[in-house]
Write a structure and sequence with these properties.
six-stranded mixed sheet, disordered N terminus, globular, mainly beta
Length: 166
């Protein structure tokens, strides 16, 4: 049974958006625009998805070391607003996962997960307050990655846009 985390009251405050000079991901009826970034503010992003987040807590070697909680979205629902020049990438093992982080402050606010190379894993704790209503945490056994991926029914499809998102 997944754990459900309810954000502090400040998460419920309305977020105001100015017109950004970037292509913004499209919204569906159940999506909101979340903004977020790294600690120093050099890296900023926009992600469109549900205000009710389904977050994975993985126990693979790198996720354990980084305490990498993340939710997965299709690439078309993510826009890097600023900071591409401040990003660097770490890879290991299969080199499919692209662990991007800020060169200035070291925070990984998003990355390309091995499970969904056509999407992004977003760190919910790097989102700005005001748009998250709830977070459901699901444990994923990354120590037995291949076996867990075979057993999980929906994780591979999380970076696939929904039919009405096309």
């Amino acid at each position: 049974m997944p754990n459900v985390w309810r954000p502090r009251q400040s998460f419920f405050q309305a977020t105001r958006f100015s017109s950004l000079d970037v292509v913004q991901p499209s919204l569906t009826m159940d999506h909101v625009r979340h903004t977020g970034g790294c600690h120093c503010g050099a890296v900023r992003f926009l992600v469109c998805c549900s205000p009710h987040l389904h977050v994975f807590q993985c126990n693979c070697s790198i996720c354990t070391k980084k305490q990498n909680l993340h939710f997965i979205v299709p690439k078309k629902q993510f826009t890097l607003v600023q900071g591409v020049e401040h990003l660097t990438t770490y890879t290991f093992n299969t080199h499919v996962a692209q662990h991007t982080f800020c060169k200035i402050c070291g925070v990984q606010s998003f990355y390309t997960p091995r499970s969904n190379p056509n999407g992004y894993g977003i760190a919910p704790h790097c989102l700005d307050p005001g748009t998250v209503c709830s977070v459901t945490v699901e444990e994923f056994c990354g120590e037995k990655w291949e076996e867990s991926m075979q057993a999980h029914k929906t994780i591979r499809d999380m970076s696939t846009p929904a039919e009405d998102d096309s």
